[in-house]
Amino acid sequence: MPISRRTLLSSVPGAAIGAALPIGTASARDDGDDESLGRLTPRPATTGDGDVRSLNGTWEFALSTTIDDQGAEWREAEVPGQWGYSESAIPEGPAEWYPPEGQLGWYRREFEAPKSDRERLLLRFDAVYSEARVYLNGAEIGHHVGGYTPFEIDVTDHVEAGTNVLSVGVAQASPADDMAWQNVTGGITRDVTLVSVPEIHIADYDVRTHLQGSSATVDVETRIENASGADADATLEVTLSDPNGETVATTERSLSSREGGSCDPSTTLEVADPNTWNPEEPQLYTLEIDLNAGDSTERVTQRLGIREIEVVGDELRLNGEAVTLRGVNWEEIHIPDHGHAVPPELTREDARRLKEANVNYVRTAHHPTSEAFLDACDELGLVVEVEAPHTFVGRGRGDPYPEIVVSQTVEMVERDKNRTSVCLWSIANESEWYDAFETAGRLTKAIDPTRPTIFNYDNYDPDDPWHDVYDVRSQHYPAFRADSTIEEYLGLDDPILFDEYAHTYCYNGRELVTDPGLRDQWGIPFERIWERCRAGDSVAGGAIWAGGDHLERWRGYLWGLLDRHRRPRPEYWHVKKIYSPVRVVETEWLGNGNVLRLTIENRHEFVDLADRSIEFEGARNSGNRPIEAAPGERVTVTVPVAEDRLELRVTHPHGHTIEQAVFTVDSPGCESYPVPTGTPLEIDEESVRTTEGPPMSVDRNTGRVEVQPEDGQGTPVVVGGPELVLTPTEAEASQEGSGAIDHRPDGRTVTDVRVVEDGAAVAIDVEYAVATGTFVLRPVDGGVEVEYEFEIEEALDVREVGVALPLTRDLTTLSWRREGQWSTYPDDHIGRTEGTAVAFPEGTRPDHEEIRLGSDRPWKDDATSHGSNDFRGTKRNVYTAALVNDHGAGVQLRSEGDHHVRAQVRSESVDLLALERSLSGTNPFGWMNRQPVLNEDPTIEADEIVRGNAAFEIRGSPSV
What we know:
Layout: H1 5-9, E1 51-54, E2 57-64, E3 75-79, E4 104-112, E5 119-125, E6 131-136, E7 139-145, E8 151-154, E9 163-171, H2 175-178, E10 192-198, E11 200-212, E12 215-226, E13 232-241, E14 247-257, E15 262-263, E16 266-272, E17 277-278, E18 281-282, E19 285-293, E20 296-304, E21 309-312, E22 315-318, E23 321-322, E24 325-329, H3 344-356, E25 361-364, H4 371-380, E26 383-387, H5 402-416, E27 422-429, H6 435-447, E28 453-456, E29 473-476, E30 496-503, H7 509-514, H8 517-521, H9 523-535, E31 539-545, E32 550-551, E33 556-557, H10 570-578, E34 582-590, E35 595-602, E36 613-617, E37 623-624, E38 634-640, E39 645-651, E40 657-664, E41 682-683, E42 687-689, E43 696-699, E44 705-707, E45 723-728, E46 749-756, E47 761-767, E48 771-780, E49 783-792, E50 796-807, E51 813-818, E52 834-838, E53 863-864, E54 867-868, H11 869-872, E55 875-884, E56 890-905, E57 910-918, E58 939-940, E59 945-955
Parallel strand pairs: 24-25, 24-31, 25-26, 26-27, 27-28, 29-30, 30-31
Antiparallel strand pairs: 1-10, 2-3, 2-4, 4-9, 5-8, 5-10, 6-7, 6-9, 11-12, 12-15, 12-16, 13-14, 13-19, 17-18, 19-20, 21-22, 22-23, 32-33, 34-35, 35-38, 36-37, 36-39, 39-40, 41-42, 42-43, 43-44, 45-50, 46-47, 47-48, 48-49, 49-59, 50-57, 50-58, 51-52, 51-55, 53-54, 55-56, 56-57, 56-59
Helix pairs in contact: 3-4, 5-6, 9-10
């Protein structure tokens, strides 16, 4: 038998029967019975009696100690909204985040009361952050604590005929804020509505769907309340329509309702051969509940999907199928304009962007999102884990407030209990265990026994006490923690969800200012980690941190796949590729390269490949080609190719591309590698010079190198160096407002310049503070080869090793051709296999090193004083890379795909770096280090030798 709310609540300090819970007068049903905690009266449809009137819009606002403060300065403020919200108001700490102690944000507006006296009036707030005291015509009528969950107040007996004045005093700080993410400034952040319902009305309903072989049942439990003052008879009709609008089931029953009482009729609808809901085919039915009582008629509608979510052994199953959830953590915030008061049309676009990245699962970290976001998830097909707003409790947030834990959890569950996309309840994030969380977990199951629950602890232990209450296990960042692997969390008796398992870059602020290409390189460890998660027994899936940028009382975080302007960062494309439910796993060219054999894996879990549009461009018979493969199966297809290039494109029924790949016969490798000329150099007391090819001179006193174009005209192209590249890892966490890390070691001293190799090359002996060695410059056809060998004198943690050529400052256009992780990239992705990047797309060099995000340009064009993201981001595994001026003159590196290149504008030159080593970033906190995933070790030991070489061609004649 399920445990009742009354029994559970009686065990919570401050929430016992009869206690004054901080939810005010919660509903029209509130009769002092804690069984009504958190319940919301369903909004009536436009058909029939009842009405929903929006009170959104322009309110009056003042920040004051009391609403009667005569000195308060009232101004206009939009509801929903947050007071004082501004993108630029990123605080340096809590003192800048909260209003002065004792001050509240006061909102007020007038509204006209409905004229009918045969209805109940309910005032509903979808969210007020974070404590609200509600006044009507000067009298306090309600009080609520909790910044992300809704509450309603029966105002029937408080409204007056004609004009009424509604006032709300809002405290940003509260017990709820103490336990929260602390990412919202104060305000009425979601809709305010005035709901009218008939006196005999639908007060609540629960919808539960069950699959039974090839059929299904839809169980509807309804609560009918009679506030009419007289006994009454009524008729309840429940109708279900399929996704095409056809009625598939209907029932009708007669009811008898006593004055001031309620009844709880239930009904079951039978559905033959249902169209089930899943993230790949999100079929939605429409449920209509009609109540006819006396002279009133009320209708409530609910869109629903027929589906079951359950834990069976070590599997999380949806409609009987074990699923692997490909997810992101999503905080519903629009930093530039709206904060947490995100308009419905924008939040729907956010859900669409996630869906188009092949995401099928969203964890609402660390608080419930708006209903508009969940509406989109229902329609688009996104499995949602809704999380209660309790985070870091027992850690940075201190002990919990038990009654607030319970009330916020119940309000969350009551709001979303009938929503199809919501498949898991999360009660807390990375919090210590308290009795209140046990009560909240058991109460959640009492209200909704149909969905699994999870207590999101960051470090799994089989002896954790919450395993007796919660269904799904949790572990955060299993592959990134020191001495931790994914494999040690596999094979559990219960499913485990890594709902924070891979973090985009954000704590490596200086490394990202230095090299935005780290965001592109992130795709390599991410792919490795995800494939291990997919293959793991008992792994129900995982979610990346994070879907978007974040703002809270401590700072702003640039960690989103989408930045605060909703521009995709490089990681977004990697997520789309790695999460793709269609993958080409093997290819083989046959014949004379005119036939391609592909093995395609269908990673969908519910649909056959035949249900997706598959097109081959470049085939002899280009166009759509139906291919059948059941979920989880592989199929091999043979495609005759018209020329030497074939493009595969798989399209979702919604119109977006699921997967895209290009196949060519030939490797895109280097056409030729420059050959040393062997021509003797000229030497005198001042310099060493070439006699053929591009003029090169090396100052024998300073070691300074200058190289001109072969015609000897114009200013030198190479204007210094060469320089050894030893870029240190970032030792401490920083934001992207910090300066770049210098790749040049300190203390460069040239000790000798000499001719070697029978006079055909010049050696420059150099001492640095941490290394001693030699550069050898060797003339090659059309340019110069630079070879280096240095002994490291003390142990160093180094991310990059290579050679840098200082070039003249007008060489600010970089072009490249490289081997990519993927065969296709968007045109504006900094990791594309071929491309051109300019240092300063807006025409002038900025005077700042920090990251400054722009809303009116692609992410790749955001620039610092060292160049744009595209220009200064490392291009890995290049075959050619050229740095030229506006006339096409400059330097080109040729490689066999084993060099990595990046460029940096400096005050005296533009450095072109040719790197033998280019490692992933080192997380300063140690617990999220990417390098072990790639078997990378940044440490170079004392007395260790680093060596390498790079060949550069000199192109054209630079401008004078």
